[in-house]
Amino acid sequence: MILMISYREPLLGKTDEMILKYISSIKDDTAIVHEVLEVLMAHVQHLMHKNIIPQNIGKKITEILLELYKDPSPLFSMSVEDVHEAIELYIERKIGKDAGWLAIAKSRNDHVVAALRLKVKRLLVKLIDELLKFRALLLQKANQHLETLMPAFTHLQPAQVSTYAHYLTYVEEILATYTKLLLFITKEVIDKSPLGASAATTTTVPIDRYELAYETGFKDLVVNSIVATGSRDFLAIASAISTCLAVFISRIAEDMIIFSTPQFNYLNPDSRHLATSSVMPHKKNLVTMEIARAWGGEAIGHLTALLSILKALPSGYNLDLQEATKHCIRVLQETINTLTIVKDFIEKLEPNTQSMKRDVELYPITSTELIETISLRLCKPYREVHRKLALVIRSSKSFKDALDKVFSELGVYFLELKPPIEPKNSIYAKNHPGSPHPLSVKNYITKAEKRIRDEYIELDVMKKNSKNPILCQKNESVI
Amino acid sequence: MILMISYREPLLGKTDEMILKYISSIKDDTAIVHEVLEVLMAHVQHLMHKNIIPQNIGKKITEILLELYKDPSPLFSMSVEDVHEAIELYIERKIGKDAGWLAIAKSRNDHVVAALRLKVKRLLVKLIDELLKFRALLLQKANQHLETLMPAFTHLQPAQVSTYAHYLTYVEEILATYTKLLLFITKEVIDKSPLGASAATTTTVPIDRYELAYETGFKDLVVNSIVATGSRDFLAIASAISTCLAVFISRIAEDMIIFSTPQFNYLNPDSRHLATSSVMPHKKNLVTMEIARAWGGEAIGHLTALLSILKALPSGYNLDLQEATKHCIRVLQETINTLTIVKDFIEKLEPNTQSMKRDVELYPITSTELIETISLRLCKPYREVHRKLALVIRSSKSFKDALDKVFSELGVYFLELKPPIEPKNSIYAKNHPGSPHPLSVKNYITKAEKRIRDEYIELDVMKKNSKNPILCQKNESVI
Amino acid sequence: MILMISYREPLLGKTDEMILKYISSIKDDTAIVHEVLEVLMAHVQHLMHKNIIPQNIGKKITEILLELYKDPSPLFSMSVEDVHEAIELYIERKIGKDAGWLAIAKSRNDHVVAALRLKVKRLLVKLIDELLKFRALLLQKANQHLETLMPAFTHLQPAQVSTYAHYLTYVEEILATYTKLLLFITKEVIDKSPLGASAATTTTVPIDRYELAYETGFKDLVVNSIVATGSRDFLAIASAISTCLAVFISRIAEDMIIFSTPQFNYLNPDSRHLATSSVMPHKKNLVTMEIARAWGGEAIGHLTALLSILKALPSGYNLDLQEATKHCIRVLQETINTLTIVKDFIEKLEPNTQSMKRDVELYPITSTELIETISLRLCKPYREVHRKLALVIRSSKSFKDALDKVFSELGVYFLELKPPIEPKNSIYAKNHPGSPHPLSVKNYITKAEKRIRDEYIELDVMKKNSKNPILCQKNESVI
Amino acid sequence: MILMISYREPLLGKTDEMILKYISSIKDDTAIVHEVLEVLMAHVQHLMHKNIIPQNIGKKITEILLELYKDPSPLFSMSVEDVHEAIELYIERKIGKDAGWLAIAKSRNDHVVAALRLKVKRLLVKLIDELLKFRALLLQKANQHLETLMPAFTHLQPAQVSTYAHYLTYVEEILATYTKLLLFITKEVIDKSPLGASAATTTTVPIDRYELAYETGFKDLVVNSIVATGSRDFLAIASAISTCLAVFISRIAEDMIIFSTPQFNYLNPDSRHLATSSVMPHKKNLVTMEIARAWGGEAIGHLTALLSILKALPSGYNLDLQEATKHCIRVLQETINTLTIVKDFIEKLEPNTQSMKRDVELYPITSTELIETISLRLCKPYREVHRKLALVIRSSKSFKDALDKVFSELGVYFLELKPPIEPKNSIYAKNHPGSPHPLSVKNYITKAEKRIRDEYIELDVMKKNSKNPILCQKNESVI
Questions:
Q1: Beta-carbon count within 10 A of C148 CB
Q2: ipTM strictly over 0.90?
Q3: Could you report the per-residue pLDDT of C291-331, keeping only the tens digit for each?
Q4: How far is D477 from chain C (nearest CA, A)?
Q5: Which of D102, D317, D89, D333 is nearest to D194 (CA)?
Q6: Rg (CA), chain B
Q7: Nearest CA in chain A to C264
Q8: Which terminus of chain B has a smaller tally of CB atoms within 10 A, N or C?
């Protein structure tokens, strides 16, 4: 029985441990071992179905692949280039040279990328799932705070009157864009089989690439075999959009951190999300939000790593591509984790409505409403009134003082004009889609809930499709 | 007549030149001035239509905006924060304080982003147009080289037999993915109006945000007013995907550079794409491809800049966002330029078929075909044959020599097995979708041409929609 | 007279305008044209001095170079690859084919990089100069605020009692590290002449590379001619450190923005640094600090661009290197601008001492001091006291309340222990180097002022050395 | 005995596992656990020495710290925020609440960064060590190949005649710059103690920060306590320069890959550095160089991550800083690994001198030498001769043919001029420092060897200093 002969040995001789350690991906392969095994099972089934390999050998190999699927740990104590070599050697150790049938009509180049596409598809499905849950929560919370006044900020200075519901639906609308885009990418970019491309130019063996694709759980085919094996554009695209999402989440984390300073005091975060100091017992630090904020920066770094690896790389498979994988998986996995955490943070959070209200009342943030009213009622150009008010504010001690001056100067009375300068009036005076007006927000929520329901249906189809047919037969759950 | 009073002056007093220079975006605003003016025209029309501003004033303002549209140069000699302030002051200089009506029911926050969305839409339309043209060219060239043999490379080493047509359709298939994705993004992410969001929370003025959107040339609305003014996720998304595309193009540029070394000598580039040395008159340098390769790296940098600006930025408009704009516009514009150049390079290029053929014959790159044949015909596991051949190659002087040894060891004759080890036979023996088999490639080309035709139709609709309705009325072409 | 024959024409024929526009660096060359001319003057002088070119021709060429030095504008209306070609053609237009002597014993490869090294050296000298001025200002301001109490923050939560002087010297100490490092890099990495390396392997012409280096204003030589022409590590290093500095400055800008919110209200920024809204006349936005904050992100992007261009680039000059230049120059120039602005911001700033004091008194930020006192006086392990106090704070309404409970539980009296829990006492109880204790800070200031004086002397030597000897002879100022 | 009470529990109550997993650094802390323990030992010794804690307790704690130093594994099975909490709880489990003395006069904020500075110092020492060894090897190899002709490339096209020694010393000279810079950074930026800064403002406990620094193995002090705890500029600086180095190495890896294509065939890499295909037994792939090339891109990504985390982070410690650590350690560790591999690659490499020679003879790469000779001997401007030769080359079939035409046109004979156009003559005709002339290279090698010896001495001092004094006493080796 020929055992433990590495791919390299017959042609190139003994392996050097230092070098193997440098080039081996075995440590990173733990993340995709299940997908690698599923792809191999589909491959073997297809070869049996097409009578390319002996049925009894195909069965034996499949059994071992299933065993490894349940417990892949034996693979990770071997000195090998990657999990593909480990699996082949493991099977050979069990059944001898019949294991060598596994290698026909495939290469690592197409199998690596098939497993990777399956893995990325599943991570995207999870990410989309988290997005949908988070959005549903945001809408539900918004519903409870339609009239909870809060300043809208520009330049981190109180700008206008808004509501907590308006803030929450702001977050939801952006997440909705990412959901839609990620659904599209999953379907149109990721969910394609590279199998049968073999090393670079397909194979002389009479397989059927489309059948093999469907049997592995893919919806479509990467056609050209150089694309199939040598392109990682799908990885770049999935990582790029997830990174944009992570960067957006970092902005929300920053909001949470600033709003939770004692100076702002807008939020009462759940104590589970806080940590304290090892020496200062009064400290309540928003550590989860800090990690979520940092993750925005880290995601940028992983995307940069992935793109810089690809930049100017000669076409076709190069081992550089192996190093790209981990950056994409990390971006997806950690963005999922971060969404889960931020969702939990907001779910458990109680806004401190008194402090928010204090600030909408304290600062002159309804000046625009005042100018609009004067401009329209007295038919004076907006800019003219704006300049006058600016000058008056400059020389006044308070907004109240400024108001008095403006009205007296204009010769009109506040009661005549009824400008919506009380915070609550201000939001009710803006009856536009997308405004903080409670009915506008309510209306938005209704439509958004409908969208989420539709997207859940779409996602469920995807989830079903991404199950491995062979494992399903055998009643194994995959995701 | 009140003239040249900056936004800041009434409240904050005189402007400091050093500081104005540091914060002003006026230099970068040249790129979007036409879009800014179009948005303002639509705004004024809407205000007139809704009887919010006096008709005669609206007309006067519109006339001046049209003048500036034809020649915006007067705006760029003014000391201002940005083009918005410049336009307002310019109009005021012309018609006095009636110009102040322009400022109602808007703010820079929503108008900046509206112009930016229009600009990005148009750049994406151009980018997609270039992609479609490039893809059509690649297919046409591929059609001429279905049987032009060429090695497929992995690890920059000759791997298997392929054709120039196979290489060209590899490029096309990846560009097709980017086309589809960019069409989706243009429609679903970019083409939405933020107008009416005003500073942060919409306005008390009775405009109609949907009507205004359509009149400005947008298909849909960014609903939430904080999203509309404070999010640049659309910029990040457009830049991210375009950067992935630029990185892919850098790989093709690298191929061209390596294939054009005298050692490879696969290509005869058109001399327009070459430059020589200022001192070495024998040098023929592939300078356009070097710039295209470098651009891949630069695009990564601009994307990183944009994302790092956004990272952890508090929600709502901050002036940081102003600095993000230029990076997106640069990514889109220069990726368009690079596509045009690389398309021209490949269009004018003559492959040196003799050198390509030399290499498919020189190296033992049909060993996989040999192993597949032996394995299937003699019913021996692939790996077993693979190892044997590897050992034989290791101890042989040439592939010919190795073949002799293998056949004699197996006790079979070459003529019996007829393995497809002649390069031409090799490609004909791989009758799979995506293989270099001339019929497979031909078949792909037919389908791909159909896709391009469909996408041209889709793009034409987009082009029509992105024209500004007011300018169309006035018979001005926009794009 | 042979006129306007480009480098490419004799070998490669006519120029294509689209392609020339794509590859030409002429627009970016405005930034280094003076350095290019200086290098050429030194080159010509050296050739004359070594009797390699005729004296009268050398003189004529030098005169034209000096003319161009005074007004380089004619160079930028020419259709050329770069400023080097423009200069040569310009001189040829003036004096005919004698201009062709300029080209001997040089190439663009060594002259491009020589000009670039001069430019980078000068930008670094300016950057160091700004750092020294900023540091001097910080120390002077700190001296005025040795006892101005202010919270030290961790996790953006008030952590312990500090002073405004302590904050200012924090900034100074970090800037001191960058100063020292940049001085070293300027001297040991940048200030080396690549001249004489010519295209890649020096020249057969009997020049003296060391003499030429000194005559051009360099202190030392890049020895190996491939390093001299094909390496941009010096650009990467200068950009990398300047980017780290820009990122640090972005943290200070963020502090300024947060401290200037009305909720914190720690700072009264000079109104020159504020802008207002075009529609909300109450807004006072910290726009300079926002641009400074954004610059941190942009610098990361430019560094990434530069490094990604270099990544995996084959050795020797490639045109990719041309594209790297602009990113380094932008990083240096804009970091200088940003330092100037932030320095001005802090110089004109008045801290709002009342708000700072309010916060050190409002929050229980001397709990560590209390635990330390109890632990040492009662000889109880720190952690035990820490836990007890944490539990007590958890169940107390105020720090005062917690104090009462702790003392009563421990059976000791406040007066006995005299823990330094009054904010002012707290800082006086920490008599360590680097603490906010006024004497510690004062002591630091004295030493730091001495360092600045020493570094000014070092910088002055550098400034003198970076003047071009020829221009000095001719009484032209260079920097 | 109070056991396993986390820092958070007394103030904030129970820990949530999901959240702990999200914020905990315990997995990454394996990389710095020894440094953390050393810092704690020095801390305890200092407290004993200053009679701040009871001697017997100090001794007991030190014993346990030493145990953990030998086997830290028990720390990594605990559910904790980080290794600091794990150590404290571990000691408490062993000796009860006396363990609580460990916590006095310190915080995690200063101890985290002290361990990190020690770790970074040691990694830099290793990196410098590798650089010195690599440089010594390059010089030694160069010595053997002073006359091994090889083309120098620009634009990846053969440009001029060079030697393998010239190429090797090119690599050495750049590595020498990095060595010098990293030595400076290690001494002047990294090797400073933050200890005693405690949480943010030092402590009321009477320690001596300078003594403590020396006892921990630091050469100097980070003075300001906010710098000490809240700055990661030292991490950014060390990572930035190491990334520039990694990017340079990626260029050398790219050279190796291109030079090892069969088309170039310049190199015979040692088979240990090759891998083959799992299906194509003829493939010899340069996998180590591909990983080294990819690492250049990955390093850019890790640097970007680190800098983006820091960008706009409020001053003082934030948990974001915890996430920065891993990126720096990864950059340093993997750059060390990559240097080791590339050094081994070049050490075991045999250049294929025949192929290199073939190429210097095949292409007209001595045209510059020809022009220089004609220009000087016939006193004709360089450009004039250059243009003539370019035109002639354009219309000639070979360089030989071009030469004949040029000489006949000029009316001179080759034998009269003796231009150094034989490759070997070409290098001997360039007697400048930094040229490929064997004596120039030899001369460089002598000086460079001297520099390496001096730097080894400097490094040895550093190595000695970075040993932990306490462990030295106890005869434990640290590095």
A1: 19
A2: yes
A3: 999 999 999 999 999 999 999 999 999 999 999 999 999 99
A4: 31
A5: D317
A6: 30
A7: A263
A8: N
